Amino acid sequence: MRPVYITRLSKYLPNEAIANDEMETVLGMVNGKPSKARAIVLRNNGIKTRYYAFRNGKMTHSNAQLAAHAVRGLFDEQIPLSQLEVLTAGTTSPDQLLPSHAAMVHGELGLQRLELLSATGACCSSIQAMKYGYMSVATGQSNNAASVGSERLSHWMHASRFQAEAENLARLEENPFIAFEKDFLRWMLSDGAGAALLQAEPNKEALSLRINWLETTSFAHELETCMYAGSIKNEDKSLTGWNDLEIGSWTNDSVFSLKQDTRLLSDHVVPKGAVFLRELMAKYQLKSEQVDYFLPHMSSEFFKGQIKNNLADIGMDLPDEKWFYNLTKVGNVGSASPFLMLEELYHSNRLRKGDNILVMVPESARFSYAYIYLTAV
């Protein structure tokens, strides 16, 4: 097994930043009325600005285009794009069912034949995809791999996607506002892409991040679905997918919208992440003093205190000065968020050789987790 290094990091955030009070001008108002949940959700999540590939009711970029922009940012005359051997891509929001997301990104890049890997899920999908690239380089199957996480969720959250449901509720003289489980996520998610270049040799002109280990796991065998789209959740906690539902319900029940059970999220997303990290600490003999920067992917600052307490309980006591995240500036960009945190830290001039970085990526869909432990060299 060869060592593997992240030698370059890049990002692509579409259009200009959108502040909290501008969100409904972009996403629209369901049934022409302001959201009752918006102010509450924004107060708790701490996000101040975010980016949308959506303007005036139309998309400005596809997901594949966002990802391709980020991948291009990894290359220049010194390392041309024509040298890329493996492309891995993770997303929650592919532009289509088929072809795969990675194939569409490859098409946007318009370059030579490549080996591809697509991972579709939620926040962990990009790291699951990157693990393929990591293993390819580590085993000598390839000399480099570009891994990208990207999301274009704004079109899922536009008011037009919920209008039929809101009108039906109004006709029934029920509350014409969409359920909190759907409205909640409209104010949590945003668009963008981040990418990393993996190589078997470190960068000679700048710092590289050596991947000491990268681990993922799933608790789906224990826990029911928490976040979902393209389906409805039944009373017995099972899901019925869009292909088994009447076509009329696709719009009348906003079947393709993202939905999240906030009770399940609160009960399990942080504690299960601590269970997995405790196991990794024992496996790799990792201690808190061996972490100089902690990069937690959080959907909301609401969870920061709970994460700190859970980490302290397992012996990973990390003071605020070791925390680094950019949620408040770029929003929750799902699978792109881990790359966006790393990219900002890498280009901040704060890293020094020997610094160790622990990246935490929880995924609430059915509770998957990823951790990466890196050293600046």
Please characterize this protein's 3D structure:
- The protein is an alpha+beta fold and 377 residues long.
- The protein has 2 domains: 5-209, 3-Layer(aba) Sandwich (Peroxisomal Thiolase, Chain A, domain 1), CATH 3.40.47; 213-376, Peroxisomal Thiolase, Chain A, domain 1, CATH 3.40.47.10.
- The protein contains 13 helices and 17 strands.
- The strands form 5 sheets. A 9-stranded mixed β-sheet has the order 7-6-8-9-1-10-17-16-15, sandwiched between helices. Strands 2-3 form a two-stranded antiparallel sheet.
- α3 crosses α4.
- The radius of gyration is 20 Å and the shape is globular.
- The two termini are 18 Å apart.
- The mean pLDDT is 94.
Helix content: 25-40%
- The CATH topology of the largest domain turns out to be Peroxisomal Thiolase, Chain A, domain 1
Strand content range: 15-25%
Low-confidence stretches: none
CATH evolutionary superfamily of the largest domain: Thiolase/Chalcone synthase
CA radius of gyration? 20 Å
- What is the N-to-C order of secondary-structure elements (H for helix, E for strand)? EEHHEEEHEHEHEHHHEEEEEHEHEHHHEE
The appropriate CATH architecture of the largest domain is 3-Layer(aba) Sandwich
- Residue-averaged pLDDT, rounded? 94
Terminal Cα span: 18 Å
Q: What overall geometry do the principal axes of the alpha carbons give?
A: globular
If strands are numbered along the chain, what order do they take across the biggest sheet? 7-6-8-9-1-10-17-16-15
Total number of beta strands: 17
How can the largest sheet be summarized?
A: 9 strands, mixed
Number of domains: 2
Task: Give the structural class.
Answer: alpha+beta
How many DSSP H or I helices?
13
